[in-house]
Amino acid sequence: MTSLLGFRCLAGGLALLALGHTLWHGLDDPGVALAFGALVSVGELSRWRGAEGRDVAPLGAAGALAYALLGENGGVPTGHGVLQVVAVVVGAALLGCVPHVAKGRGSTVDHLTRRVLTVAIAALCLRSLHHRGLSAEWSGPSYALLLVALLVLTALCDAMLAAAMAHARTRWPFGPLLGDELRALAGIGSAVCATGAVMALAVGVAGLWALPVFSLPLLLTTLSFRRYALVRTTYRQTIASLARATEIAGYTPAGHARRVALLSREVGRELGLCESQLIVVEYAALMHDIGQLSLVDPVPAGATAGLPAAEQRRIALLGGAVVRQTGVDAEVAVVVERQADPYREQPVGARIVRAVNAYEEKVREAGPEGPLRALEELRLGTARDYHPEVVESLARVLSRDCLTLPAVG
């Protein structure tokens, strides 16, 4: 959390410095600043939560980057510096974030921190070239390539910043977090970078009238991504509803699948799985008990960990067959089918689901000393039933103060 506070303080100090400098010296090219500020504000107003839980404001990001990279307005060189870029973006973003703050969205501070630092990096790179006179040597296609290169550098810095802040906030491994951020660049991130470069170039030639024209493609792209995120959310809700079938039928305790899914995802994160692998683990954990619907007599409390190995495997295979019929990703079905196999033969997702499911069942049975006793039993079973690395990762997750699990029962 200390490094996270450091990032916030750095961004806050830079924002105050930029606002104070701009208020003291006034705005260069106020019409340009107003136009880009309005674009950033509109973009922040339309901010939304993406499919992977990231806050996304494509239009605001593209407008901020375009203003940072703007060298000319209708063929006339612009005079604004790095601090004015930061001041305009901060003021516009704060204005656009007011509704989000009113709704209690807790990620607004971190979102603004990334926006300030990323724009400052982009503006610093280009303005330093301007001040040294190097940008005058670039023209036509070479100048466009220069902007693209600066945007790529800025995007990589933003990805590293986002991963570092997430690591500081959650203590999850930095490598997988950075990988997830880099993979996200291939989606809406690439559209934002391309639009930012095109806006800067178009305004340099045609003036501010280019802003609404070149905002339209990104707006359409954003609409497509929002629909995709909605489909993903509906898909996840459908799987969660299907997983509750065993609870409604009385085969498993209420909330069991949800608790196993939550804890399995945290253990997978601790083991360094990427976002796509975590989704498979989460879905498999939600549906890991679906095979119990084939039983004539329910297992007491749905505790399958104590059943004979052959019976566990039969239930798992039946569950995998049900999952395949639902149209869920085949990887999810494989994890469900193989959760009862010897752990040395299991994929990592099945190892996680098996260990977490057993832990949750043992906690429920052990009473007040449940967590410690359950972990001890899992450690005793690492010779045959549970993978040692998974068990130790589970122990580390449970020991973290930042994780609060729903109550058992």
Q: What does this protein structure show overall?
A:
Helices cover 72% and strands 2% of the residues. It is mostly helical. It has a two-stranded antiparallel sheet. A hairpin with a 2-residue loop joins strand 3 (72-73) and strand 4. The longest helix is centred in the middle third of the chain and has 34 residues, at 210-243. The protein starts with a helix and ends in a 10-residue tail after the last helix.
Short description:
The chain is mostly helical and 409 residues long.
Structural class, from secondary structure content? Answer: mainly alpha
DSSP strand content: under 5%
Q: Roughly what is the average pLDDT, rounded to an integer?
A: 83
Distance between the termini: 32 Å
> How is the main sheet built?
2 strands, antiparallel
DSSP summary: helix tally: 16
Count of DSSP E strands? 4
Low-confidence stretches: 401-409
Helix-residue proportion: over 70%
Strand order of the largest sheet: 1-2
Alpha-carbon Rg, integer: 26 Å
Helix and strand pattern = HHEEHEEHHHHHHHHHHHHH
What overall geometry do the principal axes of the alpha carbons give?
elongated
Main features:
single chain, 409 residues, mainly alpha, 16 helices, elongated
Strand-helix topology:
Blueprint (H helix, E strand, L loop, with lengths): L1 H24 L4 H16 L2 E2 L5 E2 L1 H12 L2 E2 L2 E2 L4 H21 L5 H24 L9 H30 L3 H33 L3 H34 L1 H4 L7 H15 L4 H12 L22 H18 L3 H8 L10 H19 L3 H11 L7 H12 L10
Antiparallel strand pairs: 1-2, 3-4
Helix pairs in contact: 1-4, 1-5, 1-6, 2-3, 2-4, 3-4, 3-5, 3-7, 4-5, 5-6, 6-7, 7-8, 10-11, 10-14, 10-16, 11-13, 11-14, 12-13, 14-15
